[in-house]
Specification:
de novo design (two linked rop proteins)
């Protein structure tokens, strides 16, 4: 066999191996990015549920604590900011504000024993507690997926494919303020 053919076959095999590696790595990055986006969608579902529960909570409290208007308005305003937030960082900040406002509301609730015994309030409070737990798990799942994706885009040699394919780093869902790191207290 002619040495030129051998060289062409070796070069062809090398090119095919590189192409298979490139497309395999590209597809892996697409899969990881989509998993991270799906994890964010799961957070979004739980946050929507949380946002939907808050008006019920405010209405229930409003009947008992009429003179606590400022606290109730703060919760409604924080909810509005959270609903309208976009992007991971803005959403994290808005949700932190909402958690703080809910914490202040729960302090107010402590002053009203009749409210704490109200069946509607107890039901909304239970749903809110359950939703807070789901949000916490969804945030963890999202951050785990983002970490895997970001690591893959930074590691050699997949970082070459990430650069060519414009795979950008994704933001973690982090709470910057120490107060925001603590879940709202909804115990009675």
């Amino acid at each position: 066999m002619d040495p030129l053919w051998i060289v062409l076959i070796v070069v062809g095999v090398i090119v095919l191996v590189v192409l298979f590696w490139f497309f395999g790595t590209y597809n892996t990055l697409v899969m990881l990015r989509n998993q991270a986006k799906n994890a964010w969608a799961q957070i979004d579902v739980q946050l929507k549920r949380r946002h939907d529960l808050i008006p019920n909570l405010v209405e229930t409290v409003k009947g008992y604590a009429k003179h606590e208007k400022g606290t109730l308005e703060a919760v409604v305003e924080a909810r509005s900011k959270a609903v309208n937030a976009s992007g991971v960082a803005q959403q994290a900040a808005a949700e932190g504000e909402l958690s703080n406002a809910l914490s202040r509301l729960m302090v107010v609730v402590e002053q009203y024993p009749d409210l704490k015994a109200n069946q509607n309030f107890m039901q909304v409070q239970e749903e809110l507690t359950s939703t807070e737990n789901k949000i916490s798990f969804a945030r963890q799942a999202y951050n785990d997926q983002v970490m895997v994706y970001n690591t893959k885009t930074q590691m050699v040699p997949s970082n070459i494919v990430a650069g060519i394919g414009h795979f950008e780093q994704m933001e973690l869902f982090e709470l910057k303020d120490e107060e925001q790191r603590e879940a709202p207290q909804v115990k009675f």
